[in-house]
């Protein structure tokens, strides 16, 4: 049975001084207290190692994104450099951190890797991103689909007016929604659209999805969304958007822009005409959807081999480079792993 999977917003914890590491550890401990599948003390240990590594080895410091994820916790460490030289050249399956920037960093990341059920990292001169999922391994595999996202509210805390969802299956659907403005009102609009998405699973008609979302958002301040339906057997992605959600399909060196359409959902104005965009989809393709909290001119040219990494790392790197500090910001990455090593 297909189900829609979505994630809560991240909390952004800045690390610039020793006391910030302690604040991160305490915040993660509060989150872990409600996650009974986590071993006692593990989340706090991993958070401390990530925060300490940022403080000692990144210039100037960095931040950790944290959220509950199922029965576990997702932690993503992000900095702006100087990077672990040549780390980007390591194949994706080689997860052991090399002894760059001193043995302290290598030891710290080995601790993180040892306690994580999923672990990956990416590094260039522009900075390093470390991803760790703590908790039980998800019992239900998603076939050839891997996905991850970053959703950071304005100011790094509180409710996000953005939301995302993925329904993996023979035909996989994905959605990013941005409630107008920010704060609780925008979050309520985003939740309304996610509820409609869940009710439509398995999604077969994007036009119907958008129209139902429009009606549901009438009870809110409104919002914008972008939705995709991927049919790998037919080799096709279908996209529908109302408002400024940006998207791209990346296959090898080819990048296809997904076109947004003017308008908003849930307002008193008539629903804008939904125009479906069709584009090719191949094994190994990657979908990226982003809210307008991410500047639209993003590219991967300065991020070699980034597409080889975990989707959450791709999302975090794009958010670091192109995120706006004046709005909620979300990046969703969905990858078709067929044909990949």
Protein architecture, described:
With 341 residues, this protein is α+β, with helices and mostly antiparallel strands. Helix content is 25%, strand content 30%. It has 6 helices and 16 strands. It has helices spanning 18-32, 42-57, 103-115, 184-200, 206-216, 311-322, and strands at residues 5-6, 11-15, 62-69, 72-79, 118-124, 127-134, 145-152, 162-167, 172-179, 223-231, 236-242, 246-251, 254-258, 277-280, 286-290, 329-336. The strands form 3 sheets. Strands 1-8-9-10-11-14 form a 6-stranded antiparallel beta sheet. Helix 1 (18-32) runs antiparallel to helix 2, helix 2 (42-57) packs antiparallel against helix 3 (103-115) and helix 4 (184-200) packs antiparallel against helix 5 (206-216). The longest helix is centred in the middle third of the chain and has 17 residues, at 184-200. The protein is globular. Mean pLDDT is 89; it is low at 85-104.
Present the secondary structure layout.
Blueprint: E1 5-6, E2 11-15, H1 18-32, H2 42-57, E3 62-69, E4 72-79, H3 103-115, E5 118-124, E6 127-134, E7 145-152, E8 162-167, E9 172-179, H4 184-200, H5 206-216, E10 223-231, E11 236-242, E12 246-251, E13 254-258, E14 277-280, E15 286-290, H6 311-322, E16 329-336
């Amino acid at each position: 049975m297909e189900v829609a999977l979505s994630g809560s917003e991240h909390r952004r914890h800045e690390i610039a001084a020793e006391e910030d590491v302690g604040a991160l550890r305490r915040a993660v401990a509060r989150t872990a207290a409600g996650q009974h599948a986590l071993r006692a003390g593990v989340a706090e240990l991993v958070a401390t190692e990530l925060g300490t590594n940022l403080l000692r080895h990144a210039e100037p410091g960095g931040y950790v994104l944290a959220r509950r994820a199922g029965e576990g916790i997702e932690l993503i460490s992000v900095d702006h450099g100087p990077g672990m030289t040549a780390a980007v050249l390591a194949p994706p399956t080689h997860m052991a951190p090399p002894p760059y920037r001193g043995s302290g960093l290598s030891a710290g990341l080995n601790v993180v890797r040892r306690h994580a059920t999923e672990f990956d990292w990416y590094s260039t001169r522009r900075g390093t991103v470390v991803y760790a999922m703590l908790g039980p391994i998800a019992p239900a595999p998603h076939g050839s689909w891997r996905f991850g996202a970053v959703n950071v509210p304005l100011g790094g805390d509180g409710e996000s007016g953005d939301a995302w969802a993925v329904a993996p299956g023979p035909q996989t659907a994905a959605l990013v929604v941005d409630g107008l403005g920010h704060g609780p009102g925008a979050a309520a609009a985003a939740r309304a659209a996610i509820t409609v998405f869940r009710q439509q699973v398995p999604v077969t008609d994007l036009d119907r999805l958008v129209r139902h979302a429009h009606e549901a958002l009438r009870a809110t301040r409104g919002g914008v969304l972008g939705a995709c339906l991927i049919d790998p057997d037919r080799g096709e992605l279908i996209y529908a958007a109302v408002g400024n959600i940006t998207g791209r399909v990346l296959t090898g060196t080819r990048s296809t822009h997904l076109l947004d359409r003017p308008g908003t959902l849930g307002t008193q104005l008539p629903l804008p005409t939904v125009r479906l965009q069709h584009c090719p989809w191949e094994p190994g393709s990657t979908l990226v959807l982003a809210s307008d909290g991410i500047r639209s001119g993003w590219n991967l040219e300065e991020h070699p081999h980034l597409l080889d990494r975990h989707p959450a790392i791709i999302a975090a790197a794009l958010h670091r480079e192109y995120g706006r500090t004046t709005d909620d910001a979300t990046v969703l990455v969905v990858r078709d792993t067929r044909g990949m090593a």
